[in-house]
Amino acid sequence: MRGGGNRLSDSMKVLRGTSRADRLPAVDVPVPAIRARCPRWLSPLAKRCWRFLFSRLVAAARLRESDLPALALCCEHYALAVAAAESLHRDGILIPDPVHGGVKSSPALRALRESSEAYRAYAASFGLTPADRQRLAPLAPAATQDDLMRFLASRPVGPGKDKGDDDDGNTGA
């Protein structure tokens, strides 16, 4: 986890007059375009996430071939967090405890917390969180961010019901 409290955006530093050229993010060397197949072992929602993020990260030159396993895990943790959240909505936070009687916390609550933390860590490494985006050059036009917000807000369909999911591994790139 990164320290330092709440970070100010570069534009806010310019407005306050505290911006320094030596602290602005360095411009990265252009990365050659890569093509990769979506891993077959990903769940249907994780495959949708892969196709969405892969094309945008490649277009923004933020993805290297060595980053593909991390991207796959990022997408799978996203799918696991969504599945855990759906389970919580369906079954509730408290469930009956057959061993001790009474109720106990749903295991989905812990799964949601752990998968959300793992997703956030992977997403941060790709510059997909607001704080980490400040350390990297902008992703591309603002429309890319609107697309990301639409994707994250879209209600995923259940397993095996993903209309756009095919098992041929196309990335959509």
Structure description:
By secondary structure, the chain is mainly alpha-helical. The chain has helices spanning 10-16, 44-59, 68-91, 107-125, 130-133, 142-153, and strands spanning 94-96, 103-105. The protein has a domain at 45-153. It contains six helices and two strands. It has a two-stranded antiparallel sheet. The longest helix has 24 residues, at 68-91. The radius of gyration is 19 Å and the shape is globular.
Sketch the major β-sheet. 2 strands, antiparallel
End-to-end C-alpha gap: 32 Å
Give the strand tally: 2
Share of helix, binned = 40-55%
Q: What's the overall geometry?
A: globular
Kindly report the spatial arrangement of strands forming the biggest sheet.
Answer: 1-2
Poorly predicted runs: 138-143
Structural class: mainly alpha
Number of helices: 6
Mean pLDDT: 79
Oligomeric category? single chain
User: What string, H for helix and E for strand, traces the elements in order?
Assistant: HHHEEHHH
Strand content: under 5%
Q: How big is the Rg?
A: 19 Å
Keywords, please?
173 residues; mainly alpha
Blueprint of the fold:
Layout: H1 10-16, H2 44-59, H3 68-91, E1 94-96, E2 103-105, H4 107-125, H5 130-133, H6 142-153
Helix pairs in contact: 2-3, 3-4
